[in-house]
Amino acid sequence: MPKGIFISKALAASVVVVTASALASFLVMIIIFQEQIRAREPVPPPTMPATTAEPTGLPPNMRLPKDLVPEEYEVFLQPYLYAQVTNITNQSFAFTGHSVVKFNCVKPTSRIFIHSKDLNVNFMQVTNENGTVLHIIGSTFMEDESNFLEIVLRERLRAPGTYYLRTKFEGEMLDDLTGIYVSQYLENVDEKRFMVASQMQPTDARKVFPCFDEPAMKAVFRITIMHRESTTALSNAKETGSPETTEIDGETWYITEFHPTKKMSTYLLAFVVCLDFGSKETNYLRTAVKTWARPEAIEAGHADYAQSITGDILLAYEEFFNINYPLSKLDQIALPDFGAGAMENWGLIMYRETALLYEEGVSSTSNQQWIATVIAHELAHQWFGNLVTMKWWNDLWLSEGFATYISYIGVDKVNPTWNIKDLMVLNDIQSVFQVDALATSHPLSSKEEDVQTPADIGQLFDSITYSKGAAVLRMLSDYISDSVFQAGLRTYLKDHQYSNADYKDLWSHLQKAVDAKQGTENVKEVMTTWIEKMGYPVITINTKTGSVSQKHFLLNQTSPYKFMWHVPIRVMKTGQKVILDLLDVKGPVTKTAYKAVDDGWILANVNCTGYFRVNYNAENWERLLLHLNNSHSDIPVINRGQLIDDAFNLARAKYINVTLALNTTKYLSNDMEYIPWESALRNLDYFILMFDRSEVYGPYEVPESLTAQYNQINAISVACSNDLPKCTEMVKGLFDNWIDDPVNNTIHANLKSAIYCNGIRHSRGEGVGNRSGRDTCRILWTQDKIRKMDAVSTINYIARNVDGQSLAWDFVRSQWSYISEEYGGGIVSLGSLIDGVTQRFSTDFELQKLRQFQEEHAEDTFSSGTRALQQAIERTQANIKWVKENKQTVLDWFRGQHVESQGF
Fold it and tell me: Where exactly are the transmembrane stretches of this chain (predicted)?
């Protein structure tokens, strides 16, 4: 049928009559109006104030608009998971929930932007504070990395004004270790158990409920969890009382309601639903501290060590910061599956089991130290990160760098005999130097606009943020004095508590502390150079003339940047006191502090308090090496390690000859300290990685001190990995005895890793090590073999072995699409995987494969591994160049040492 409109003739006539009548009336109105105008002239209408048109379209970037500010959430969650599955139950990984967010409108708008990811939001309602429902004319889930849910209203929200957004939603709990996820484990050897856990950092609260998921959008949270009978629910705050019960389809459910939290960021929200977990509880003044774990671990006392030190560290921090821990409870829980090492959720800190549980006689000293360090790190976050939070993720170092630095103070309080503060030079400074010497490094504080997407944010969880952040804070504390630094931190925390800050706020408080002590240091002027620039300088000193200069240190190239730092340098001369100098020019400049007296030596960067490397003229290097050989104890132990580490890396960057670097190790036969030996072994390990595929490579007592125990481990590892007969015979004997009688294991806990690994290589049980690296890689993705959270570290262990490296790389390359899809959105670091399987790359062929790998995959598929891949390419280029230039020199040096040792 053709389209059209048809009317009758009668109707048409009626329309004509009505139209004519209306026209006549309109003419009469015009005549009357004109008469009124003549009688009374009208005045102009008042001028209305100009209004700003409301912007349309998407926000200009991936950030939430600042129109709306959340104040309080009410969140109800119901995970349908069965903690224990029987023959009559079907497991469910679904969850449902509803939430109300109370927010303030600070700028009139008719659009609400909120985060939501992987949720089916099936109900939305907006009301004002009087309960009036506002009409929603549309909503859109953004198909990009913003994860925005846009809600469009018919009328504009008024400013100031208070409003409520109610939502109902449903989702699926996966095993991806992010958002709300499922963990599966065994109890009583073969009984399957399931539990629910959460991991919101950095951007996964939006996977649990619609929320304003940015760190500056702090709010109070009221959480209620409905969970299966016999399970326990934990969250950030205490329960309001015993769980209520209800019946649904003949099944009993618990409803646990929690007290409101303190004002905090969404990424700190946490909850657990578990079956039969036990706990150890201790009251420390105002705070009830509980350590939770699987029942067999609690019964065996594996949580005792963590429980014994947590309260002491907490009290030490309260004293150090002069601010009490603000919550009435602190729960710590060991989870069978957890992507990070631990997470600082306020009031409910979550850990991997290896980071919280200690088994006397089985766990090594390094395990014990690791547990203490992780606990101290997470407790430091209760102030730095939780109480005071960075405004945006570009200043993540304000949280993670501080927690790393402060953790050494916390551990030192509970075990001063460990001298843990000295180990920061090995654990953090020397390690991060390697990454920060690449042109693909990044500043501690990036520009906000450069950190937008979840992938951008994820890449910031690296050694620059953690270790360099800690190193520059240590340098600053030494520069202005520890007491002034502490005073500034106290006022910083007090003034910004329950709020957000950036590094400029920190500088302001530290400067006030400096001024109060009548100091002359300019905190902002000095520290801005370390925060806003990537990399670090090498300080070059000529002790004959007193000349000193600085230059951006890069391993593989001359820096194209005109970087200049304000460098605090502690200088030590033969037989004289240490002095502090500030180098605030590029130089070279001449200063008496750097000129040697007579035939004496000069040592710069005493105790490595500065974040830089030092190079000297040849004469000073010779004098330092001679003094190390004759009287090494005159030089601080940290600097003995520093001299070795600086020399090897200066040689890699072609500042000095590689033989000079190798010569720094010759005095070690007289030095039994751990730090210089570990520095040497790490740098010699680079030689092994470069040359172990070439012709260049060729009953005990447990020491009392921590570092001496580490030395013992190193001695066995190095001797056996180089096939020294006495070591391999000892290891074979111990390993075979353990295989024959595993119950009566005589191998000390500290040495198990070294003896087991080398025992597999050398023992009579040839079949033990026959499984190929490729086969091992394949089983990683089967969770009953190796847990998902351990897959990356296991592949990296395979890659550390010269025979396993190519197998691990081939596996990662061939399976990358699956790996990036499975792990790319989680907190498991793809960057560490790429870094691990490419450490040994030093040939043109391997560089070609890396570039081909990069071309085969679109950049966004690398997610948090994008920067790591760029760094792997840069590092491989540097390795190729270094091997070509130094292979023969290194071979000749080692041959010469062998001849010397034979007495020829």
Answer: 12-33
Half-sphere exposure of 116 (CA within 13 A, CB side): 23
Lowest average pLDDT, out of 78-82, 458-462, 695-699, 778-782, goes to 778-782
Number of Cβ atoms within 10 Å of the Cβ of 384: 25
Give every strand in the sheet of 579-583, ordered side by side. 579-583, 567-573, 602-604
Q: How does pLDDT run across 368-423, given as a tens digit for each residue?
A: 999 999 999 999 999 999 999 999 999 999 999 999 999 999 999 999 999 999 99
Torsion from C-alpha of 279, 280, 281, 287, nearest 10 degrees: -80
The residue ranges of every structural domain in the chain are: 64-275, 277-382, 394-531, 537-691, 772-900
What's the pLDDT at 792?
80
State how far the Cα of 172 lies from the Cα of 198, in Å rounded to an integer. 13
Contact by Cβ (8 Å): 483, 470: no
- Catalytic residue chosen out of the listed positions 257, 378, 678, 874: 378
> How long, in residues, is the chain?
904
Q: What percent of the chain shows pLDDT beyond 90? A: 62
What is the separation of C-alpha 211 from the centre of its chain, rounded to a whole number of angstroms? 23
What CATH number belongs to 394-531? 1.10.390.10
The whole-angstrom separation of Cα 647 and Cα 655 is 9
For residue 754, pLDDT over 80 is answered with: no
* Calpha distance 388→326 (Å, rounded): 12
The model carries a pTM of 0.82
Q: Are 246 and 115 in contact (CB under 8 A)?
A: no
CA distance 649 to 146: 41
Please give the DSSP secondary-structure letter assigned to residue 64: P
Tokens for 636, please give them: 């601080």
378 catalytic per annotation: yes
Q: Are 527 and 475 in contact (CB under 8 A)?
A: no
Q: What is the CATH number of domain 277-382?
A: 1.10.390.10
Q: What is the mean pLDDT of residues 636-660?
A: 95
Helix axes 844-856, 805-814, angle to 10 degrees: 20
**Tens of pLDDT along 508-532?**
999 999 999 999 999 999 999 999 9
Average of per-residue pLDDT across 849-864: 72
User: What is the C-alpha separation between 555 and 573, in angstroms, rounded?
Assistant: 29
Half-sphere exposure at residue 856, Cβ-oriented, CA atoms within 13 angstroms: 12
Decide if 64-275 and 394-531 have a common fold: no
Give the pair of three-digit tokens for residue 31: 């005549």
How high is the mean pLDDT of the chain? 85
Ligand-binding site membership of 377 (annotated): yes
Q: How far apart are CA 370 and CA 73, in angstroms?
A: 36
